[in-house]
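Subject: design request, 118 residues
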């Protein structure tokens, strides 16, 4: 199984970026985004179930970030708008490969760095 995140980069405050996460090797159920800034704990950004309905978001990104997925392409996206310097972090995608009632993040990809300049 591989999760390949991409799309990170340097963007000014107020700008936008779209991250992608391609999943290969296994069917994924829920997919999620997490981030970790230097010196901070890993933070939940958002998640989406295989159906694509009712994605959930962390409080710090609600209303600014949008998660979507294209199951035909085995890809999840994170559209990030109105970016702030505090959004600077390494962004990781994760997959639930089990599909049980409770989501279990049992596979992680490498991160992609997002830097928001002030």
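Subject: RE: design request

Done. Sequence follows.
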């Amino acid at each position: 199984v591989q999760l390949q995140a991409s799309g990170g980069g340097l963007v000014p405050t107020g700008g936008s970026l779209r991250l992608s996460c391609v999943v290969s090797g296994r069917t994924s159920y829920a997919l999620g985004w997490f981030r970790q800034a230097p010196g901070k704990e890993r933070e939940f950004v958002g998640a989406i179930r295989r159906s694509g309905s009712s994605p959930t978001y962390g409080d710090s990104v609600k209303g600014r970030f949008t998660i979507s997925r294209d199951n035909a392409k085995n890809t999840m996206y994170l559209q990030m708008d109105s970016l702030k310097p505090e959004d600077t972090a390494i962004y990781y995608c994760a997959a639930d490969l089990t599909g049980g009632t409770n989501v279990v993040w049992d596979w992680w990809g490498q991160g992609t760095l997002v830097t928001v300049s002030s």
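The mean pLDDT is 95.
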